[in-house]
Amino acid sequence: MVTLTVDAILERALTGYDLFPEEAVVLLKQNNQSAVGAIRATADKLRQRQAGNTVTYVINRNINFTNICEQHCSFCAFRRDEGEEGAYWLDWAGILEKATDAVQRGATEICMQGGLNLQAKVNGKSLPYYLKVVEKIKQEFPQLHLHAFSPQEVQFIAREDGLEYADVIIALQDAGVDSMPGTAAEVLDDQVRRILCPEKINTSLWLEIVSTAHRLGLYTTSTILSGHIETPEQQIKHLEKLRSLQQTAIDRDYPARITEFIILPFVGKEAPKPLRHRVGHDQPILADALLLTAVARIFLGNWIPNHQPSWVKLGLAGATEALLWGCNDIGGTLMEEHITTMAGAQGGTNMEVETLKAAITDLGRPYQQRDTLYQTVE
């Protein structure tokens, strides 16, 4: 039975029950300070129970290999047309140079995503280009975990080459891709997607590709792009789809599943004008991001125990605050980050390990380096 008072909902959550979507919506709509405080405290308690007290981090590098993209998402300040000022496409040497630098700085992971560049082909085919990117890095650094290519990129390759999604995923795995970023999810509601990213894959396709990855043994992350035109109901609908995706992977005993959930608050400073004006703010509203962080922990935590804020979008102070609202992980060092920075984010593009450790220590919590799949790195 659905309970609709905040106290009763939080009580149910603390006894271990999964919330109904309607209950989560009630929590998300609270603006009374004492109710919000109770939601935060509940999320913090559940975080401790589900993920422990230690705050984890990963040493990784982002490589956004091209910003040339065939699509025109209404929130994106990163994409360029070929030949446009600011357009770039890294060559093999450039990609290897960044990977080498990452390894020298202690990285265990390369996270790689890029624009949907129609020229990125080998002998007129898309998949061989992506495989070559993977092989270049893996031949040189077999120990690196390659966290690469979103569901959108998988669909793009499959479409260009007339392949099944499973065939693309298997080929990428065989070449050395170790896990898939759960990006391009934005909000898993087609009404929102029609405005935000009309050319991107729809909700059911995103879910199908991620579920296929799990079935084939490829772990994924999960994300939401929040704080723009979506409603609390649509945010919860998104979380519900992620929870159901994880339940499917567990129920069917798939060899892989979702490793973490990350909230990516909308940064609009340099975003295309129509959406920016409609949203009405340039930087994330921290209070909204923190409430969603807490509700996501309460709603998803039984199934996805690792929750991470985005210091790029919230700044380090905001991301550290999120560790009190249900997050147990502070994310990665990134070393460089273009997509959010080009949108006008103020969090920076690189985080030194010592800076992350200091922020965690200031909270009075222990820290621990992890790898991409949340195994401890000694």
Structural write-up:
The protein is α/β, with parallel strands linked by helices and 378 residues long. The chain contains 15 helices and ten strands. The chain has helices spanning 6-14, 21-28, 33-51, 92-104, 126-140, 151-161, 165-175, 190-196, 203-215, 232-251, 273-279, 286-300, 311-322, 339-342, 353-362, and strands at 55-58, 60-64, 109-113, 145-148, 179-180, 219-226, 258-265, 307-308, 329-332, 367-369. It has a four-stranded parallel β-sheet with strand order 5-6-7-8. Helix 10 (232-251) links the parallel strand 6 (219-226) and strand 7. The longest helix has 20 residues, at 232-251. It is globular and about 60 Å long. The N and C termini lie far apart (46 Å). The relative contact order is 0.16.
Main attributes of the structure:
single chain, alpha/beta, four-stranded parallel beta sheet, three-stranded parallel beta sheet, about 45% helix, globular
Total number of helical segments?
Answer: 15
Query: Given the helix and strand composition, which structural class is it?
Result: alpha/beta
In which order are the strands of the major sheet placed?
Answer: 5-6-7-8
Mean pLDDT comes to: 94
What does the overall shape look like?
A: globular
Q: Report the end-to-end length measured between terminal Cα atoms.
A: 46 Å
Main pleated-sheet profile: 4 strands, parallel
**Content of β-strand:** 5-15%
| Gyration radius, in Å | 20 Å
Run of helices and strands: HHHEEHEHEHHEHHEHEHHEHEHHE
Counting DSSP E segments of at least 2 residues, the number of strands comes to: 10
Q: Uncertain spans, ≥5 residues at pLDDT below 50?
A: none
**Share of helix, binned:** 40-55%
